[in-house]
Give the backbone structure.
Amino acid sequence: METIFRSDINDEWAHSGVVEAGDFVFISYCVGNIGQPIEEQINGAFDHLGARLESVGLTLESIVKIDCLFRDIWNIPVMEKVIKERFGGKYPARKSLQTEFAHVGGGSGLLFQLDAVAYKG
């Protein structure tokens, strides 16, 4: 078995933000601009994802799958607009889910989060 590399580790939350395993990179808990309107939070999450990808020498083009979590699932069209702007037609596979988020701020706090899988082969 190849070595698995973990980075962006948060001991308090007991998770790794980035895990490299073979030809795949798993990126979790990408958020940004918490407390701002939904489009700013979605862009912030993609900015966070981009920074994590850059830390392992990758770009958004390497993303093959994203899981999108919403406080309000009816905001999917806002996310689709952002994805169209950022991916230029090279879209990853995607799943969207609604959740209450166990996060401070309640309904005015965290509205969007994404997790992603990238291919580095």
Remarks:
- The chain is about 25% helix and 35% strand.
- The first strand starts at residue 5 and ends at 10.
